């Protein structure tokens, strides 16, 4: 069975607060670990009233204390927002707290509107240009493979698994050149998926850390007892996505029956574009759609996203998805 992992945006539900979202993230991580998922990643987002994972390394630490075996990490840290030295210290600390379990996915996007640059006191456009250099420097701070004038403590010697993230060809090319595993954000930006994976594999150069290409692809996956139940659950995320893309982001709303049918053609098309990396339905439907996606992409891992208004529904979705794909033991034992 292909390894499955979980991407959690730590959603804040309507009527709830950040504290509720973080508590629910810890519970979800426990469920993912028990069900046999390989990793649980938190993504860095800022200025989003419906997402509580902005202080990503802090959220990861909380999740680490709620679990004991599942790999935990960032999917990802938007490096232009940060100083590589600070990220080395943060993830060196996480590795000291949770040895052998920490992943660090690196992305180039800012993760928020341009006004974020002013809040961060940074020129994010210029910082993005230095992204390849910053990745190399950050890796050196953790591994010591390049001599630097400063030492990150914690940081140097930490066994953090570094990943490159992307939604375009840029990340694929950089991951290939640096010999890093690559994760593609096909759950919200599927247009360049096939080209990016092809580029990554064809241009890959072995490194001291990875001898052959290793690609992960993201899917929206919501599994319930029936197709209809799953579609209803998924309407919460559909609403949140449409609101985000139309400039009105908010907290995760309750589900609405027949939501897509209420939308204009433009919004329906926006959601339909995402369906190529989406498995929403009964266990049989989810199994078939994930299998078709894996056959198409030849991904080495799948990471599943997909928020539900009822936290218990997402917990059950993770269990049903793993059962649907035929897991009979934890991924860590395979």
From TrEMBL:
A GO molecular-function annotation: oxidoreductase activity, acting on paired donors, with incorporation or reduction of molecular oxygen
Matches recorded under Pfam families: Bac_luciferase
InterPro entries the record matches: Bact_Lucif_Oxidored, CmoO-like, Luciferase-like_dom, Luciferase-like_sf
Membrane-spanning ranges: none
Domain Luciferase-like residues, every copy: 19-296
A cellular component annotation (GO) from this entry: cytosol
Family label: To bacterial alkanal monooxygenase alpha and beta chains.
NCBIfam families: oxido_grp_1
Protein name: Luciferase-like monooxygenase
